Amino acid sequence: ALQKQGVEISIDDFGTGYSSFSYLKQFAIDKLKIDREFIRDIPHNEDDAAIVEAIIAMAKRMKILVVAEGVETREQLQFLQNAGCDLVQGYLLGKPMPEAQASQCLQDDAWLREHL
Fold it and tell me: What percent of the chain has pLDDT over 70?
């Protein structure tokens, strides 16, 4: 019923805390946000890399968009792109800023080329 009203459901911090695989069955999930705990040491930590790849593959199979939280390096971004991650967020793209500054950055082609 929520989807019919245009509401999207995301699971934040997937893989830690109260997030659970059972939520994937119980709810019509639109996005999974992979917790930054798993992103921090990729691609160098093989266990974290395997977990992230598995989450992305599972989500793709279920037609759920994947967001990686806490992306801070180009290596992490490259790994996530190669793994098929849909979206990223983190300091690599920019630190928290006022709305006006964020709007200007999004309109600035040079900023986008520099960060992507």
Answer: 89
Give me the helix-helix angle, 74-83 and 46-61, nearest 10°.
Answer: 40
The pTM for the full model equals 0.81
CA distances to 14, 28, 33, 61 from 3, rounded to whole Å, are: 21, 8, 19, 20
How large is the average pLDDT for residues 66-89?
95
Q: Which of 111, 114, 115 is nearest to 101 (CA)?
A: 111
Task: Indicate the pairing of strand 65-68 with strand 31-34.
Answer: parallel
Measured distance CA(98)–CA(58) in Å, rounded: 35
Instruction: Report how far Cα 50 is from the mean position of its chain's Cα atoms.
Output: 16
Number of Cβ within a 10 Å radius of residue 56: 20
